[in-house]
Structures are given as structure tokens and as C-alpha cells.
Amino acid sequence: MNWLLPEYIADALPAEAERIERLRRSVLDHFRGHGFEFVMPPMLEYLESLLTGAGQDLKLRTFKVADQLSGRTMGVRADITTQAARIDAHLLNHRGVTRLCYCDSVLHTLPATISASREPLQIGAELYGHAGIAADLAVIRLMASAFMRIGVPVSRIDLGHVGIFRALAEAAGLPQESEEAVLNLLRSKDVPGLIESCADVPSPYREALQRLPQLYGGVEVLDRAAAELPALPAITAALEGLRHLVSAADLPFSIDLSDLRGYHYHNGVVFAAYCPDYPVAIALGGRYDGAGKAFGRARPATGFSMDLREVARLAPAGRTGGAILAPHAAHDGKLAAHIATLRDQGEVVVELLPGETACEGPVCDRKLVQVGERWIMETIQED
After folding, report:
1. Which residues of 20-55 are buried (b: 16+ CB within 10 A; e: fewer)?
2. Predicted confidence (pLDDT) per residue in 140-194, tens digit
3. Weakest-pLDDT range from 6-20, 242-256, 314-328
4. If you compute the radius of gyration of the chain from its CA atoms, what whole number of angstroms results?
5. What pLDDT does 238 receive?
6. Cα separation of 280 and 273, whole Å?
7. How many CB atoms lie within 10 A of CB 366?
8. What stretches of 188-232 show up as alpha helix (H) in DSSP?
């Protein structure tokens, strides 16, 4: 069966592809309206450039190939974010704020979740050059308004801050191996394992690390965190930043201080958007200052992205008008001109070929018929 596709790889058939393309245009137009410029990075890059600053999980998800021209190892991108950071730092070289957006396929060696595709259509927006919390707020608002524009309700937006765990690990003097073990336990919210792993961590950092999985819920969690976590400067600053976010925007925020996805990549506020009846985050984002350092400039950076294929499954089906069925124009100049006029007006006109009696493609709800010397439109009556 040579026609079978690899696991977690699928075609987009006409109805789905049309919906994805409609959403792509709508979201990119939305980004453009907020001043974000569109970029198109290449699918392949040299591996050392593609994975600069990336976490171990992204490295494992990246396909590697040998370049037949140079002999160097290349990678098929698994994420466009680092490519956008390279463009900002090395090619655009702006001194002020840069706003970039993108939409293209990425490829994963393994699916991110059991229901995810290994070829997501990643669409996102990145903001460079502003270190303040206002930039994080701007991209969160942009994400929320994009979902509103396409009709997908966001039930909650989880906020976290990787600086809190980083400050606790540093203050506790955790060696790298122990830090990785605790990090993985926090990601899975394995409280018994966390208690065992932190047994030798000095107080009060032991208790603080064990409390992180419980610091989850409404915005009141921030007050609990301030009371229960050590008053380290980095933790105080992180909690103040999160307070500013929840007070500045009327959005369904919740707090999850053990959300440490992308820990080795992000270095500040992180966020995840969730939709009703969808089991995992539909969009992810956060701050990743310094990602452009390897490309010549360490710039403040924040942004978000989502898989447009998944979003299209959740979006309401847009109403699209039916197509118009027209006979083959052949040498009929008037009919050809009329068809051209209709297409210029935005109509879909299917011109039948000789011998073709019906349209198997777009659903046609109207047809062109000749009355005397004029071509008029009639509604197609269903049988």
C-alpha cells in the first residue's frame, strides 16, 4: 500500500484546506493590522543555527539531514520562533522594537500530543526590543483578539513565570542534574516524587519547591505565592509582573507557577491558552530574552504561536457562497466576458469542459443559462 502516509501525517482535503486558508488570511491580516510584518524563513537550516538556544525537547523533535553540497548537518525546522529571532538579530538589525509574524509548516519527529500532527501549520507573532511587561501584555492581547476574530472562545489563559523556579533552584544550590530531576517532576506535577527528590534541599527552599504544584488556580494564587514563597528579589519581581498582567487586561487569567514548558528557552512570563472541550493548550507563548545573542545581538523578545490545523478544527464553519456553473464558452465571446466579469466580482465560476456534465468540485448553487442573446443566472433546484 504505497499510498499510505506516515503516522501523524495527513492530507488536507478541499473543505479543510479552504477553512485553513481562510483562517490563515484572517489571522495574518489581524497581525498586520497591529503592525506585525510577515516573514518567511526557510524550511531547512544548518543545525547549529536552527537549534541555537533551543531546549532539549526541540532538539529531539528536529529531523536531521546531510547537506549534499557542504556535507554539514542540516535540520528541518520544528519551530519558527528561533528563525524569527535570527532574522531580527542578524538581518533586520533594527535598534527599536521589531514586530514579526509568520505562518508555515514545521515538522516533528514525534507528535507533541497523542492527537497532534507531526506537520503543524505554525502561525505566530513575535515582538523584539522591549523588555517591559507591556510587551508581554501586548502579545497576550493580540493572541486573545486573534481567537476572538476567528470565533474560537478562549476559556482560560494560564500564566506562569520560569524565573520563580530558577530563583529557587539557584538559591538552594541545586546541581544541574538535581535541577533537571526537580524540573521534570514539577512539569508532571508529581508531588510524592517531588517530596522525595527535595529531601536534601535546605529549608525554606525545600518547602517552596514542594509548594509550586499547589500554586495553581485563580489570580488569588499570587497572594498565596507571595506569602508562602521566600522573598527573593527575583520572585518578588516575577509576582509583581504577573499582578500587572492580570490587572491590566480583562481576560480569563489563571495562575500556574509549575508550568515550566520551555524552561531552558524561556526566561520570564509564560502563558498558555485553552479552549472549551479541547484537552491541551491551543496556543503557547512567553518571554525568551537573549535568543538572538548567538546571531550577534541579545534582544528582549516575547511572542506566541499556535497550530492553525488544530485551530481550524475548533473554528466555526464559515458560510461560503456556492459556485456558479457555466457551460463551456468555446468561441462565445459574450459568455467568456460574462464569466470573467463574475470572477472579477469575487464569484467562483466553474466552466464545464466539453463532455463534462456536472461539477464534482465546488458545490454549485447557481448556473448560467442563455435566454435569447443574454446570459442570466438561475438557481439550481435540488432533486
Report:
1. bebbbebbbebbeebebeebebeeebebeebbbbbb
2. 999 999 999 999 989 999 999 999 999 999 998 988 888 888 888 888 888 898 8
3. 314-328
4. 26
5. 95
6. 9
7. 18
8. 191-197, 205-211, 221-228
Q: Angle 263-24-85 (CA atoms, 0-180°, nearest 5)?
A: 35
Under 8 Å between Cβ of 124 and 306: yes
CA–CA separation, 4 vs 10, rounded Å? 10
What pLDDT does 53 receive?
Answer: 65
How many other CB atoms are found less than 10 A from the CB of residue 293? Answer: 14
Enumerate residues 6+ apart whose C-beta is below 8 A from 302.
126, 127, 130, 135, 136, 139, 268, 269, 285, 286, 287, 288
- Grid cell at residue 162: 520560569
- C-alpha 45/C-alpha 158 separation (Å) is 33
| Amino acid occupying residue 300 | P
Q: Please, which residues have CB within 8 angstroms of residue 60's CB and are 6 or more apart in sequence?
A: 109, 110
pLDDT in tens, 180-209: 888 888 888 888 988 888 888 888 989 999
The continuous run of DSSP H or E covering 160 comes out as strand 156-161
Q: Which of 258, 175, 155 is nearest to 215 (CA)?
A: 258
Mean pLDDT of the chain: 91
Q: Which domains does the chain have, with CATH numbers?
A: 1-152+277-320 (3.30.930.10), 156-274 (3.30.930.10), 323-379 (no CATH)
- Which single residue is written with the C-alpha cell 432533486? 383
Q: Is the peptide bond before 204 cis (omega within 30 degrees of 0)?
A: yes
Count of Cβ atoms closer than 10 Å to residue 146 Cβ: 26
Whether the CB-CB separation of 380 and 325 falls below 8 Å is answered with: yes
Angle formed by the axes of helices 221-228 and 233-248, nearest 10°:
170
Q: Using CA atoms in the order 277, 283, 286, 290, what is the torsion angle rounded to 10 degrees?
A: 150
User: Against a cut of 0.85, is the pTM above it?
Assistant: yes
- Amino acid letter, residue 369: V
Through-space distance between the first and last CA atoms of the chain, rounded to whole angstroms: 38
Q: Is the pLDDT of residue 17 over 80?
A: yes
**Cell representation of residue 334:** 459574450
